[in-house]
Amino acid sequence: MAWLFVKAEVIKEPREFFYRNKSGEEERGVNLWVKDLDNERLKMPINWFNCGEDVREGCQYEFKCYVSKRKNPMSGAYEYSFNVEKAKLIRDPSRVKDGGDEIEIPF
After folding, report:
1. pTM of structure
2. What are residue 23's phi and psi, to 5 degrees?
3. One pLDDT digit (tens) per residue for the chain, 107 residues
């Protein structure tokens, strides 16, 4: 299995979805469009299953994603999906003080 480690900013409002886990319980997931902070031209979709956080556009995260690869039977091309294993919030623009300074987020 391949892993992707990326620091990225959420660039579109996340789309929420619900699914049933293996035990049949309903869980919440989000589809994210993110922009890599090291290479701003790189934009990609990321799936976050069992997401317990309030994810908003503009937040920056450190993601550890596992990469899935499957072959499209129609075109023969490979398709990749990135699914969050762990995430850590590194910057939230909504948490600013009155003077405009950022509040540090404890890890």
Report:
1. 0.77
2. -90, 5
3. 789 999 999 999 999 999 998 899 999 999 999 999 998 888 999 999 998 888 889 999 999 999 999 999 999 999 999 999 999 999 888 776 554 455 454 43
Place of tokens 């290479």: 39
Residue 88 is encoded by which pair of tokens? 């850590």
Tokens representing 35? 């922009």
* Nearest residue to 49 (alpha-carbon basis) of 84, 23, 12: 84
With a CB cutoff of 8 Å and minimum separation 6, the contacts of 102 are 91, 93, 95, 96
Of 26, 63, 24, 71, which is closest to residue 44 (Cα–Cα)? 63
